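Side project, low priority. Logging it here so it doesn't get lost.
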Amino acid sequence: MTAPTPPTPPFRDPHLPFAKRVDDLMSRLTLDEKTAFLHQFAPAVERLGIAAFRTGQEALHGVAWMGPATVFPQAVGLGATWNDDLVRRVGDAVSREARAMRARDDRVGLNVWSPTVNLLRHPLWGRNEEGYSEDPRLTSAIATAYTRGLRGEHPTYWRTAPVLKHWLAHNNETDRDTCSSSVRPRVLNEYDLRAFRETVEAGAVAGVMPAYNLVNGRPNHVSPYLRSHLRTWTQDDLLVCSDAGAPSNLVDSEHYFDTHEEATAAALRAGVDSFTDHGTDSSKIVARVRGALDQGLLTEAEVDAAVRRQLSVRFRLGEFDPEHDPHAVTADTAAADFDTPEHRALALEAAEQAVVLLKNDGVLPLADGTRVAVVGLLADECKLDWYSGTLIHRATPLEGLYERFGADRVSFAEGVDRVRLKTAAGTFLYVPPSDDSPGKARGTEGALDPALLAGRTDLPPLTTDAAGSELALVDWGEGVLTLRAPDGRYLSVAEDGYLRASADQPGGWVVQETFRLEPHGNGHLLRHLGTGRHVQVAAGGVKVAAPDASPSGEAPEVFELVVAERGEDAVTRVAAEADVVVVVAGNDPHINGRETEDRTTLRLPAHQERLLRAARAANPSTVLTLVSAYPYAVDAEVLPAVLWTAHGGQAGGTALARVLAGDVSPAGRLPQTWYADDSDLPDLLDYDVIGGRQTYLYFEGTPLFPFGHGLSYASFSYADLTTRVQDGKVSVSFTVTNTGAVTADEVAQLYVRAEDPSVPRPRRELLAHRRLTLAPGATAEISFDVPLSAFAFWDVAQDRWRLEPGPYALLVGASSEDVRLSETVSLEGEPAAPRPVRERGLDAAGFDEQSGTEIVDRTKAAGEAVTPVAGRTGELLFRDCDFGSGVTGVTVTVAGGEGTVEIALDGGPASAVLSSTTHTSGPYDYVELGARLTAEGVHDLRIGLRGTLRLAHVGFSG
């Protein structure tokens, strides 16, 4: 007899709803198996036929870290396209390549950690390249488009499962795992949460990743906002994946909890479902979860909730239904979705659409036959960033211009300083010859953690001889140098400490290709920045000093810098012989402004300023082309033309050449304000965009180039503006006509300004945008339906959204400052009401205005309090407080230290002073202090704070 076939378990039945299938699978898993699922690398459960699973696959602008892939423009460049449909198609291509790559290498994950929706609030943020815009609506529009492409269009199964980064209010690398962003309620709701919310509500997001930082004194990995906000925006099970190492930071660097068991339990209860910690070693996290369970800090039900959300994502990815998965790819069919002609064309299209023409006095486009001098440190580079894949194809600006204009019409000068380094013994650093063919680029073979990729030790170390080798020196700013050997490879330091010409480009988590020359006597010491150690000449070759080198050991070498040629001299020669000079300047994404390192200035590095001045002096027809991950402050007035593009991926050079030649009319738009000077910037850690008057929304100065700015080789007229308020929305329509001589794209932008607000509102705020293509003479009608909720603001007095009645100006144009049409509409809404303080009191963090304070955590689990900034007197303003028929007493709930709370009405003297004279036992041990206060009717109330105390609440009685 044949044994009966065992029945198919319900979790394997594709006809059942996912929720029932998850329920069934959960019932079959043991507690140990469920606990093991909480680590990033979830093991297989062989008895149930369940495969291993990994959360996390970087895919910000192409599949990253796992070897060759199509490389699209950086995220900030995709933001500059202002083209939702294009970005959706990019996301679609990336997800198809992820599936194809996984078919050949099962290390490639389908839970993709992209996109980044942190707002580009401050242009000095080191990770500016990863975001889309300073504006929450533009960010959410682009992010929604990308996630829709990543998800795919099937109603049930997802091609990949995108996770948004980094929750929340994260715009600094300086002290990023210990600093706290102080975010007032209006900024939280109107700015930082908005980009996440609108993207999640669009329905193509599988989860979020909390950021390293703290918000209002509490680490994001134990944020109550995950439950109170994020999980209320959708009915889907959202998977919250920790950032790498962040769970351990809760104890090790932030000291927020005393034990890892306590920290792990708190993170799980807050909503973290997958712990990215200790690489592939899950044992520590598993032990912490088990310890938390044993200590009663965690329940099995709380573990179940996290595992259920992970399984929900895995079911949506088709893992349990391979025969029904419409996105399934095999090794034999993978080629159809990888590095296709369509993907290459899309990479070029995206790079072209990302180019922003900032200024043009008529020198562009370049006419056929123009003699072009291409100069600058980025002219013959195709730079990658930390979240790039490995290039299959590449085109530098120089290569693009050679192809477009012919090599006989294009000359080139890189502008490096050519130097020799002379030792105290009179010899020079020498790069020995190598029969080695160029090594594989870093990341060619893929790595789950590219930070662990080691430098090469198979090449001979540098030595010294009488002639030495001429090195190409570049100063990337602040004295950070790279040195390149004659064969094109960069000097680098591997694990054995020796210097070799071994790197194709600077890169890595800790860059090993950067140095600093430090004046010493009549020469310089050469410090290797990756190790922090000085370079010395030893018997076995040139190396860095050992970390424990004693004073009696080999001394650092004192070098004389012998300059064979300054970069500006080479630039001057080629510039003088050309019709037009194209200076390609910008940044290396691994140096001076990257993950772990913020910039310190908006200015171009001095080396590149030298090259630009030399080009202009030799030839006034100088076009500055900035290829960078962030804005610069440049002297645009003296230049006839300026362009900007983010690092454009594999096709960036071709795209730039086509724009310069006029084959494509530029139509990229700035996704963030370009400020004219460092003095225009707030402190990097000031997250109050309202009080600090930050971004185009509130900035009152004159920018170098405004948000939304971008020029064209065509011209456009706007007309026929009509508006209508009905059915809970404002309908806006207008026409755009191409009045130029070439087919071109235009980006029509709709803004709003509240004309008579009761609280500070944005100078103008983006409501909608559309990129469209128009032939010469063609006209298109554009219509937007804007829900009335888009006109609301967060009313701190009511602790909710409120649409204020009154006039609103609708502004239509080509940028936030280039307004072509306007019309004012009157909206009905809810009138302002005074704060019912007699009944409810005041939560300290619900202020209208503040100075000298920061918001901190009221408890480790929830709530906010306010404390004075160290060494300052703090002040809080609460407008229109209604004391009703009268109060006679006030109480304040305070903790954490000694100090005073002063209560004043309507700008008068203090009506009550409450002092805490004894230090409470901890920052969360609250006491109530009382005093007499007489007030009736409606008044503004000011609270002065001195000392180290935390104020949580103010109550009134009588």
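Brief comment: The CA atoms of residues 641 and 774 lie 24 Å apart.
Revisit when time allows.
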